[in-house]
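My main concern about presentation is that the manuscript never shows what a single data entry looks like. Each protein is reduced to its one-letter sequence and a matching series of backbone shape codes. For the editor and my fellow referees, an illustration may be useful. For illustration, here is how one protein appears when written out as sequence plus structure tokens:
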Amino acid sequence: MSEKKFAPASLAAQAMGWIDPVTRAVVPPIHMASTYLRDEDNGYSSGRIYGRADNPTFDQAEATLTALEGGAKSLIFSSGMSAASACFLALSPGDHVVASKVMYWALRNWLMTFATHWGLKVDFVDSDKTDQVAAAVKPGLTKLVWIETPANPTWSVSDIAAIAEIAHKAGALLGVDSTVATPVLTRPIEHGADIVMHSATKYLNGHSDIIAGALTGARDDAHWAKLRTIRAQLGTILGQTEAWLLMRGMRTLFPRVAWACTSAQSLAEKLAEHPMVEQVLYPGLPSFAGHAVAAKQMKGGFGGMLSVRVKGGERAAIATAARVELWKRATSLGGVESLIEHRASIEGPGTPCPPDLLRLSVGVEESSDLFDDLDQALKRAHNA
């Protein structure tokens, strides 16, 4: 299929239109081989040597994601953490990094512990405040600026284009965790990002049945080659079956995200008027601090993630989560089922997450059922 002729939604739905050349199946097979035959001249005309470096099952998912993000190359990994950490392991001890203060908690914890002990110098800033990013970068010393937008779990929005300009002027690369936005809503490379990361466990797969990560690069250059080498040497590859399942999930990415966006917008507007809700955090609300930037760089919706701050504080928030019936109390996001979680309990001491906050991942259920379930849970929690 021609990437220029067809819309991204069509490319995703047909997985680039690949057909198995042997059977003519519209869904290519899973390749389970761990090793590949040498030619008689001792070469590898197939371009494949060993399964730890690559596997044909990776090809379709990587090519599809590259097309959706408008990048040069993509790599899939065994998890979002392995994909993100590869970007930092590609740096050298002593290099300086500027990172979002609000981000996926496991990566923030890894940066504060392993990465700093290994030798990276990391400064955390509120990346939705561009002036803080500008003040933190050190020309010639900063090698990577890392932002997550919208940022989990407050959904603050960072201006990708403005931060890309700051990073590049300082001689640094810009990496963007775009897990929540997905390429359906934002293509960071078009705004100047050098690397886009996804926890592919979430929206890209969308069915809560695999753990996976992905990187897309703006250029197929020496730095990208280093990332590929890191994946091969550390062995952080995705299993063949999981790679196939990831591609299966990406086929429905666009309708799933569109549905989630519509439902999340409706829920945010209703919950903003709820007497037992202190605040709704959602980029689609005009009252949200990052709404203007989100409207500029998110096209087609504002995502399926929102958070609510519950009146009555931590006790009321936990009690509300305990009383839902349709929503599921579970960690993760981006699946077809709607999830609710008290994030401060998960992240523990030092979290920037307010104790009264509940994180909501909106799935594909009927939005009125989702609201009614939250409504009854809020009322029961406050009457308890």
The longest strand covers residues 142-148. The chain has a mean pLDDT of 95.
